[in-house]
Design goal:
The protein has 376 residues and is an alpha+beta fold. The chain has 17 helices and 13 strands.
């Protein structure tokens, strides 16, 4: 049982004159966007705890932009080497996680995710008996290191007269991933594959609930901070009582600062003030810099929020970020032997920003293996 514990006993860190926090700037630093301390994909993913990954190419770039010189092939090699894995570890949403973290995260988070999906599964007439039948089908088909595409998995279900229409197939795969049967393997061409989790990854070391809570809170506030408790709850899917309990267990490793009547938490190792920079960054649409928070206003003016997610389908546009602030969006246009990067400012880009965009465009081109230039 998780006990609600007040966090008032954690002291407010006394800040010098350059505070209050420049939250967006410090997030760039802590998220390994403006600074880089790692050399391997698994290190980046483990540092961030989990990285949103429903847009596969964008998720590869999210990892790559935090690793100087890395290519798309380097990230996919890490997947094939099984040091990072793609699955639904939190909130029922696709993420990359470090292989060594998946088991304890699933132990902590999967039960609540399954419970929250019960109503939807009743609507789809998906019963425990159907999930059990599907499990037996997939165990037989995948045992021995086999990897099958979603279409092939659906065909197996249909052959056994388990309908996959109306999102039933998706929810069956999703549920069996939550239960620890399935995870994603490598891509076959452009198609992701599924495989058996217990064959893909070694069994993890057991941890108790308190240790899992503390570790998840530490990963989040160290990598995503400064962030609020509400941000952590939205990112992790924990209850507020659990989130507070996790933070309480880290009383010597986290500090807090009050800004605009909100309390922001961060690692005590966070620099007192990250320096202002004119460097520009081209982030993918579902990057943790945006998706890792409930309240995005420290880095995105509310009046521009609908410009990065203009519809109700939850699709986020790639963003242009300078000095911790989202100032526009961008898109790539593939040509015969090169890429054109077209930025769209929310208001206007000055000459300094336009010059600064050349470097991240080159870096993106290097990552995907094609020359990339900025065009108006």
């Amino acid at each position: 049982m998780i006990v609600t514990i007040a966090t008032d006993c954690i002291p407010v860190r006394l800040m010098p004159e350059q505070w209050p926090l420049n939250i967006g700037r410090l997030r760039l630093h802590n998220q390994q966007i403006s600074t880089h301390r790692f050399t391997r994909p698994a290190e980046v993913v483990a540092w961030l705890g989990a990285m949103q990954a429903q847009d596969y190419p964008g998720a590869l770039w999210s990892i790559g932009l935090r690793l100087p010189g890395a290519t798309q092939e380097d990230i996919e090699h890490a997947i094939a080497e099984r040091t990072i894995v793609r699955t639904w570890p939190m909130r029922g949403t696709l993420h990359f996680v470090a292989a060594e973290d998946l088991h304890w995260m699933r132990t902590l988070l999967a039960p609540r995710i399954i419970a929250r999906s019960a109503g939807r599964h009743r609507q789809l007439e998906l019963t425990d008996a159907i999930f059990t039948r599907a499990e037996k089908i997939f165990l037989k088909a995948l045992r021995g290191g086999q990897q099958l595409t979603r279409e092939e998995m659906f065909a197996l279900l249909e052959k056994s007269r388990i309908s996959t229409t109306d999102q039933r197939g998706y929810h069956i795969l999703w549920r069996l991933a939550q239960e620890g049967l399935l995870c994603f393997g490598t891509h076959r061409g452009k198609q992701p594959t599924f495989t058996l989790l217990d064959e893909w990854l070694p069994a993890g070391q057991p941890r108790d609930a308190e240790a899992c809570l503390a570790e998840l809170a530490l990963r989040y506030f160290t990598s995503h901070g400064p962030a609020t408790m509400d941000d952590f709850v939205a990112w992790s899917g924990l209850r507020i009582s659990e989130a507070k309990a996790g933070v309480h267990l880290l009383s010597t490793r986290l500090a807090r600062e009050n800004v605009a009547e909100k309390t922001y938490w961060f690692s005590t190792d966070t620099p007192v003030a990250a320096k202002k920079s004119s460097a520009a960054y081209l982030l993918p649409g579902f990057d943790e810099f945006m998706l890792g928070y409930r309240d995005r206003s420290p880095s995105l003016a509310p009046k521009h929020a609908d410009k990065i997610c203009p519809s109700s389908n939850g699709v986020f546009h790639p963003t242009v970020v300078v000095d911790g602030q989202v100032i526009g969006t961008w898109k790539r246009i593939a040509q015969k032997s090169a890429l054109s990067i077209t930025p769209t400012p929310f208001e206007s880009f000055g000459p300094t920003v336009r010059r600064a965009l050349a470097a991240p465009a080159r870096r993106y081109g290097q990552f995907v293996g094609s020359k990339a230039t900025v065009v108006d």
